[in-house]
């Protein structure tokens, strides 16, 4: 099953289409932009407590039959965090000094 490729930052609502260089995801595919990950979340996912990695890009060119963004399009369902920026910052403070692989 391919990644959902969510279309926006769940914090600031910035558009993050397939291939956007600032798209970051956690292991549960929570999606945030790099500025929010760095400046608000301190690389701590507010949903699972894990860390973030750059989101892969789905190929735009079909190099194998049926495999491309045309065949498995990115999601158009926008998602938003239910937490305020203050709550996000407070949550991140608890885990930001613990490496993601040890959380």
Order of helices and strands: EEHEH
Low-confidence segments, ≥5 residues, pLDDT <50? none
Give the distance, in angstroms, between the N- and C-terminal Cα atoms: 26 Å
User: Major sheet: size, sense and barrel closure?
Assistant: 3 strands, antiparallel
Discrete helix count: 2
Q: What's the total count of β strands? A: 3
Output the strand order for the largest sheet: 2-1-3
Word description of this protein:
This protein has 103 residues and is α+β, with helices and mostly antiparallel strands. The chain has one domain. 17% of the residues lie in helices and 8% in strands. It has 2 helices and 3 strands; from the N terminus they run ββαβα. It has a 3-stranded antiparallel sheet. Strand 1 and strand 2 form a beta hairpin. The longest helix has 11 residues. The radius of gyration is 14 Å and the shape is elongated.
